[in-house]
Design goal:
Heat Shock Protein 90, 3 domains, alpha+beta, Helix Hairpins, rod-shaped
């Protein structure tokens, strides 16, 4: 299924169906167990009533049972012989024997030897005759009876019963077992009724759950569909200034809409920066290329007028600009710098020593005993130091200073200061943008393309550090490159 609504409705229906089936089975099992226990209790009451009569030596043919049609009774002796059954009992099962015809046996108050009716040797027939009318005293087993399920046919009707087996001992020491049953028709009828109601109600309830889930999910996903349509329109029109509708709720859909709009804002800004970058790069490249072409065309027509130093200068400038653009493209692509350990103090000394043509000498302040080891790309960090020194040389009046020190948490700080005019506070973030030059009166030949500080900040950020600008004590600008130490 490709529809979220369909999957949600199906999932909710399956979960509810499993829950209802489990609950329904539990209800049926509990109901059946309770009703079966009730039937067993009724059977136990009847069995104990009959057992009580046997314990009082009531003759088998005089045993009284209540509701013989609903409570069939079978009495067996120790040998499993049937000695008594309830009236109209024609068949039985589940009691250990299926016989329903009583066997000839002594009455509860007589033993096997007494059944012949003979007299005692001591001539006590008169005493026996006097006591014959008084029943003896036996006992009924007080232990928990045994319960079984079976069937019985009473008055031509066969039904299921719950049987309870209770033992009784007559006054003559004869042990008898009374099997009394209670019908399970009420249990079967109740379980059947509940099961039928569940089979009818479950599909209807599942239909209701599926429908409600479908409608609720449809309403909840309606803003998502609006976001999708607007995103499709934005993609088709390529108009990144458009925004998706934000619902008034504070749920996940509203947060999705806000995040989508924030993404569109960032994408619009990125595309705008890219367009401006391409336009500025084209503009910066056009000037040296046009100048170089003009000089070469003049040289081709009039060799004596060829300005070779100017052509070389334009070529060098064009090469440097191409290198800057290539480095920016690599940084924008997410290229990660190397993790080579290097001494930043030694790198600063090396960079300064290679700058023989600077307009103003550079003063280096690097303690010999300091630990200035950082991890990163040697070439990119050298490029940052070179760009900061170039920027200071263009703006300094008489002094340029570079120093290296350690700061808190083991950071290494490189500071480049000059005694020029400094950077106004409101412009201190703008100077790190690409192709930005604050000195509008400066010619392109005197200044750079406005990429040096942008490259320096991007490289610092890629190395986990930062580049900031402030005021120097000499009155000029102070640029600080802060990098995490290698330790």
């Amino acid at each position: 299924m490709r529809s979220v609504r369909a999957r949600a409705a199906l999932g909710a229906t399956v979960v509810v169906a499993l829950a209802l089936i489990g609950a329904g089975l539990s209800v049926l099992l509990v109901l059946r167990a309770n009703l079966t226990d009730q039937a067993g209790l009724q059977a136990e009451v009847v069995a104990r009533e009959v057992a009580g009569q046997l314990a009082l030596d009531v003759p088998y043919d005089r045993l009284e049972t209540r509701d013989e049609e609903d409570h069939p009774v079978q009495v067996t002796d120790e040998d499993g012989r049937v000695v008594a059954v309830s009236k109209d009992l024609r068949a039985i099962s589940g009691t250990g024997t299926d016989r329903v015809t009583p066997d000839p046996s002594p009455t509860p108050g007589q033993s096997g030897d007494e059944s012949g009716g003979g007299s005692d040797d001591d001539g006590s027939d008169d005493d026996a005759d006097d006591d014959r009318g008084t029943p003896g005293r036996g006992e009924v087993d007080s232990d928990e009876p045994d319960f079984t399920n079976g069937t019985a046919t009473v008055d031509g009707e066969t039904a299921d019963y719950r049987f309870a087996s209770v033992r009784a001992t007559t006054s003559a020491g004869v042990t008898l077992t009374v099997h009394a049953g209670a019908p399970l028709a009420a249990e079967q009828e109740a379980v059947g009724t509940v099961r039928g109601a569940m089979l009818v109600g479950l599909p209807l309830l599942l239909l209701v759950v599926a429908g409600v889930t479908w409608l609720v999910t449809r309403r909840a996903l309606r803003p998502v569909e609006g976001i999708r349509r607007e995103m499709a329109a934005i993609t088709a029109s390529e108009d990144l200034s458009r925004r998706v509708p934000e619902p008034g709720s504070r749920d996940e859909v509203a947060r999705l809409a806000r995040t989508t709009n924030e993404t569109l804002t960032a994408l619009e800004a990125s595309v705008e920066r890219q367009r401006r970058f391409v336009a500025d790069a084209s503009h910066e490249l056009r000037s040296p290329i046009a100048s170089l072409r003009t000089q070469l065309e003049v040289g081709a027509a009039h060799p004596e007028l060829l300005d070779v130093p100017g052509a070389v200068a334009d070529t060098v400038r064009l090469q440097a600009l191409a290198a800057d653009l290539l480095l920016l493209a690599r940084l924008d692509a997410g290229e990660r710098p190397g993790r080579t350990a290097l001494d930043l103090g030694a790198l600063v000394r090396e960079e300064v020593s290679q700058r023989g043509g600077d307009r103003i000498p550079v003063t280096v302040s690097v303690p010999d005993s300091g630990e200035f080891e950082v991890a990163g790309s040697r070439g990119q960090l050298a490029r940052v130091i070179g760009n900061l020194l170039d920027n200071a040389q263009r703006h300094a009046r008489s002094a340029v200073t570079v120093s290296v020190r350690t700061a808190e948490r083991g950071d290494v700080v490189v500071a480049v200061t000059d005694d020029g005019a400094g950077v106004p506070p409101r412009e201190r973030e703008r100077i790190f943008e690409r192709f930005v030059r604050l000195d509008d009166a400066r010619t392109r030949d005197d200044g750079g393309a406005g990429l040096g500080l942008a490259i320096a900040r991007d490289v610092a950020a890629r190395h986990g550090g930062r580049l900031t600008v402030g005021d120097a004590r000499e009155g000029g600008a102070r640029f600080e490159l802060r990098l995490p130490g290698a330790g």
